[in-house]
Amino acid sequence: MGIARLAIIGAAVVLLLALVGVGVFALLSSLDSEGSESAPTPTTSQAVPPSPNQVVSATGARTLLIKCVAAQCPVFVRVPGGDVLMSGDLVEGQEIAYDQPKLAVVFEDGGTVEVYVNGKKRARGKPGERLSFTAERS
Description:
This protein is an alpha+beta fold. The strands form two sheets. A four-stranded antiparallel β-sheet has the order 4-1-6-7, with no helix packed on it. A four-stranded antiparallel β-sheet has the order 3-2-5-8, with no helix packed on it. The radius of gyration is 24 Å and the shape is rod-shaped. A hairpin with a 2-residue loop joins β6 and β7. It has two domains: 38 residues; 73 residues. The protein contains one helix and eight strands, in the order αββββββββ.
């Protein structure tokens, strides 16, 4: 019985190592392909131009462009029912743009941002007023 137990333990160790190897391979594969499947990241005025997978509308205007005109601008942008694209603060002069077909947008202080939807400027909110809307590509 001693040899049988050693054989079972040896088989279990080999199986465990195989499972760890498959797990590491799957993890590395998902990390390599994550960039092509994830949502495009926002572009800032100081950043590299948007990636090729961001499609600009036929008019050439972005679906949503946000410009921070105050010291700090709390911004929340998400694809409805999907990924959160931005949840944080912009600083004065910073811009972010998105090209997704439909976006849910929330500003904690609507008076701190200039907003363009499909190239058209939206009316600014009142200082201190929470502002939320849906931006759709035209």
